[in-house]
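Weekly sync, protein design subgroup
Attendees: M.S., D.O., the rotation student, P.L. (late)

Item 1: inverse folding check
M.S. brought a backbone from last month's batch and wanted to see whether the design step gives back something sensible before we order anything. D.O. pointed out we never logged the input encoding, so this time it goes straight into the notes. Structure tokens as presented (272 positions):
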């Protein structure tokens, strides 16, 4: 999407947004301006004015950033060729990069390590490669956080199915395994602030991504993948949304989630 079109969309959405009276005047001033380049400059200034809090945006990896298939990325020698970024992801991260006060990270559970499909070293290699490839395309993330641990229940289920599990990576309720928030805590620290002091938004394709956002007091954006549908995660997320009004959105796609996050950030509004 062309930048001017993107900002036009943002501005149109802002018209429907609730602001304080001072900010509302400011927004209406922006809307009066016809030149799209000036709009971009103003929106950036607006972002500086209103962003009294940072926004930490955590992106899930498989099924959110890259296409998820019925195999574990990193388990085959051709893993690099198997990475396909999903539509709107590169452009969406680029737009997040443009807004002052927004930091973007990747947060991923990688059960493939416990399943012995690949080593912890390979897990890091794949993650770093994804970060590098995104950066090459002008879509920067501050870093990645990956958890190789699985729960006892997960392990027991796999054992029942006759599948192999590395006991070294079986830990119940590991603080870094989504939906726990350990990786978010580390991500905020990497960005130079505490998790308590920032807005949190998580984009992911699983209910565990949305639960992590809620546990951190943030907002969750579900983007659907085949795994979402396989495990009926949308239905679970709808139930969560009923209990947490205003904190969960089922997004049409990645870019739609990004657009909403940016709107929220520049409005300076706290989650309701
Ligand atoms: Mg996923």
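Designed sequence read out in the meeting:
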């Amino acid at each position: 999407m062309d930048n001017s079109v993107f900002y036009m969309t943002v501005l149109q959405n802002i018209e429907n947004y609730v602001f304080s009276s001072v900010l509302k005047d400011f927004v209406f001033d922006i809307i009066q301006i016809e030149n799209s380049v000036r709009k971009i400059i103003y929106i950036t200034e607006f972002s500086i004015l209103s962003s009294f809090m940072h926004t930490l945006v955590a992106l899930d990896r498989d099924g959110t950033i890259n296409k998820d298939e019925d195999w574990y990325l990193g388990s085959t020698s051709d893993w690099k060729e198997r990475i396909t970024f999903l539509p709107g992801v590169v452009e969406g991260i680029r737009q997040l990069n443009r807004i002052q006060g927004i930091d973007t990270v990747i947060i991923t559970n990688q059960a493939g390590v416990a399943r012995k499909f690949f080593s912890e070293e390979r897990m890091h290699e794949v993650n770093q490669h994804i970060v590098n490839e995104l950066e090459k395309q002008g879509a920067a993330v501050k870093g990645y956080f990956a958890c190789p641990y699985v729960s006892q229940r997960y392990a027991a289920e796999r054992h029942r199915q006759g599948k192999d599990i590395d006991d070294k990576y079986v830990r119940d309720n590991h603080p870094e395994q989504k939906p726990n928030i350990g990786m978010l805590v580390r991500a905020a620290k990497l960005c130079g602030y505490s998790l308590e002091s920032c807005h949190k938004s998580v984009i992911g394709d699983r209910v565990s991504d949305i639960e992590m956002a809620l546990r951190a007091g943030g907002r969750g954006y579900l983007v659907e993948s085949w795994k979402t549908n396989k495990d009926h995660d949308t239905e679970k997320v709808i139930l969560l949304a009923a209990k947490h009004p205003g904190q969960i959105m089922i997004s049409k796609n990645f870019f739609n989630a990004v657009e909403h996050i940016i709107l929220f950030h520049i409005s300076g509004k706290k989650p309701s």
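Discussion: The radius of gyration is 19 Å. The chain has a mean pLDDT of 86.
Action: P.L. to compare against the previous round before Friday.
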